[in-house]
Amino acid sequence: MATTKVALEPNTPTAALSAKLRVNKVNMTFNRDGQRLSVLDNIDLEVADGEFVCILGPSGCGKSTLLSAIAGFLTPTSGQITIDGEAVRGPDPRRIFVFQERGVFPWLTVAGNIGFGLAKLKRAERTERVQRYIQMVGLEGFEKSYPHELSGGMKQRVEVARALAVNPDILFLDEPFGALDSITRMVMRGELLRIWEAERKTILFVTHDIDEAVQLADRVVVMSARPGRIQQIVPIDIAHPRDISSPHYLELRDGILNQIGLAHHL
Amino acid sequence: MSVRLRPAIFLVLLLVLWQAAVWRHPHQLLPGPWKTAGGIADLVHHGLLVKYVVASLFRVTWGFFLAVVLAIPLGLAIGWYRRAEMAFNPILQILRPISPLAWIPIAILWFGVGDLAAVFLIFIGCFLPLLLAVINAVHGVPAVYLNAGRNFGLGPIALMRRVLYPAIVPRLMTALRITLGVAWLVVVAAEMIAVNSGLGFLIVDARNAGNRYDLVVAGMVLIGVVGLLLDAGIRSLEKAKALGWAYAEDH
């Protein structure tokens, strides 16, 4: 992650720190063809304000379901999810969900997309805010372009900028870089870290990529599948920018790989 | 030979064949292109061409316009609220196969012989197909757009205006094009029965008042040409830059 300049103190917030988000004994079962299918099993998780947490697991482990429930798009079968002590009752502009680049509105320009959540602001203020976030994600000159004229990575930047523009407390990212080529993915991780360091949002980031999780997160939540359970929570106590060939990095990564292997009998 | 010229040359060839066939068999029951052109010239001479075309377009415009402004919001609402759809679906499915022409007696009963009856028939012909197209288009809107809209705090009305409606515009354009074609078909039939002006009336009147088949075919040609122009007009709307996404390979 060569693009990050500011070194951070290794922060490993614990549950004792002010919890921004609490997931308490959450279960989720779906009915499929008359059969009850348990997708999430007794999930407990606390996330501190400003923390970067990656939820890691193979596809089908329920990690996206967990994120959708936290974001308010799904209601858990049982258990509570609270944010700032308030029960989550639905989606809320204070916490924005970033879908891969599929969530960009194709009928709006880049500027129109980024200003989408700012309809209540006065025009001048909105323009100023849109311009600021266009700069932040490096899309100057593309204000009037439509998404179909952009690359996948640029669309992803538009969606991140659209989310940041409404100044949310929390960002939910569901495999945001999954559809990008590997070089663009590396660049986007660097950009995300830079933005996170500048804005200090709480970030929940779902991924199936172990390296991605270890490069980005303060803590990695390793999930196992069917039913989705939290297998282990691994703090990543390495300062940014992380040296991805250091022994400690490799040790953490291999530890998680082992965990996943155990969880899934690889 | 330019590619654009080929259709024109082919058309001229067909006209020549038509004329030649009429010359060979002068007692056949179809006027040739030359006589038809004479019929059109006659209409121009009596000031009827513009009058009739405008009369037909006037009825189509109103019937189509009313159908569009009612069908779009209603379709968005019905498509959005599953329960509304369950309630409306049976009646829509029963009304759908009824030809708009079957409404002619009712239209005359309600509105008398005149423009209103014709406008009503065109409205009936356009409204249901448009409504069903909008409902179907709403179902086709990816959930990710709706979730994103809700995430930014939009209520139902704002969601329909700012997400659902723009998301269905490409499919709506196709539906509008098809429906405008239907409107143009219906107006001719309506004018044959319910009014005494317009291109449909011209065709019936020319036959009844002295078997002027040159005017009948002239009327048919005018209907075809105006229909073509209407279609070209609505097609040019589809080319707007803001709609480019609908035709891009990946969006």
Count the DSSP helices of chain B. 11
Rg of chain B? 22 Å
Which range best describes the helical content of chain A: under 10%, 10-25%, 25-40%, 40-55%, 55-70% or over 70%? 25-40%
Low-confidence stretches of chain B: none
Rg over CA atoms of chain A: 18 Å
Alpha carbon gap, first and last residue of chain B: 39 Å
Largest sheet of chain A: 6 strands, mixed
Biggest chain contact: A-B, 23 and 23 residues
Which class of secondary structure composition applies to the elements of chain A? Answer: alpha/beta
Q: What strand line-up does the widest sheet of chain A have?
A: 6-7-8-3-9-10
User: Given the structure, what is the number of helices of chain A?
Assistant: 7
Key traits:
heterodimer; A: about 270 residues; alpha/beta; 6-stranded mixed sheet; 4-stranded antiparallel sheet; disordered N terminus; B: mainly alpha; about 0% strand
Please tell me about this protein's structure:
The complex is a heterodimer of chains A (266) and B (251). Chain A has 266 residues and is an alpha/beta fold. Chain A has helices spanning 63-71, 110-114, 123-136, 152-165, 182-199, 210-216, 247-264; strands at 19-32, 35-48, 52-56, 78-83, 86-87, 95-98, 170-174, 202-207, 219-224, 229-235. Chain A has a six-stranded mixed beta sheet with strand order 6-7-8-3-9-10, with helices on both faces. A four-stranded antiparallel beta sheet of chain A has the order 2-1-4-5, covered by helices on one side. In chain A, strand 7 (170-174), helix 5 (182-199) and strand 8 form a beta-alpha-beta unit. In chain A, helix 3 (123-136) packs across helix 4. Chain A starts with 18 loop residues before the first strand and ends with a helix. Chain B has helices at residues 5-24, 33-45, 48-80, 82-95, 104-111, 115-139, 143-151, 156-193, 199-208, 213-238, 244-247.
